[in-house]
Design goal:
By secondary structure, the chain is an all-alpha fold. It folds into two domains: 80 residues; 50 residues, no CATH class. The protein is built from seven helices and no strands. The longest helix is centred in the first third of the chain and has 32 residues.
């Protein structure tokens, strides 16, 4: 930019000191204007490269771009589903399922037994529990929650 201003001054016909002073004054004014423009541009660039502004502009760009939105949503959903499936595998192991089924069956049998203690069903459940051997495969399902005396 300075070279252009200098070339313009060189093309001008300077015949006396008055013309020279006018040319110098014009060049100084151009230099002042150029410096002001450069400083203004520097401040604008500095403001735009502020880390907060860069992050904000990046997120606003992502928010405005449908393809990136879809990719981002798919990635987040994939991560969430991956985490959830990992936790589900941990929670739904064979032991935990066995324990859950055992607890449910035992709870419902106890509920049936205690609903009407004098009924035939209740007495049958009590006898079944009492005479089922410990090594029987169904023993864990029907064992009483209460410690029985004599066992």
């Amino acid at each position: 930019m300075m070279a252009t201003s200098t070339n313009i001054a060189n093309r001008r016909n300077i015949k006396n000191s008055k013309d020279l002073k006018a040319a110098i004054s014009e060049l100084e004014q151009r230099i002042h204007n150029d410096q002001y423009g450069i400083k203004e541009n520097f401040e604008q660039v500095k403001e735009n490269l502020n880390p907060k502004r860069v992050v904000k502009n990046t997120f606003s760009y992502v928010a405005e771009t449908p393809e990136i939105q879809r990719t981002l949503v798919n990635t987040v959903l994939g991560m969430i589903l991956g985490y959830a499936s990992k936790k589900a595998v941990e929670l739904l192991s064979e032991q935990s399922l066995d324990r859950t089924v055992t607890n449910m069956v035992n709870h419902h049998i106890s509920k049936l037994e205690s609903r009407d203690p004098d009924s035939l069903l209740s007495k049958g459940i009590s006898l079944f529990r009492k005479y089922t051997p410990v090594d029987s495969p169904i023993y864990p399902l029907i064992k009483s929650r209460y410690i029985e005396i004599g066992r």
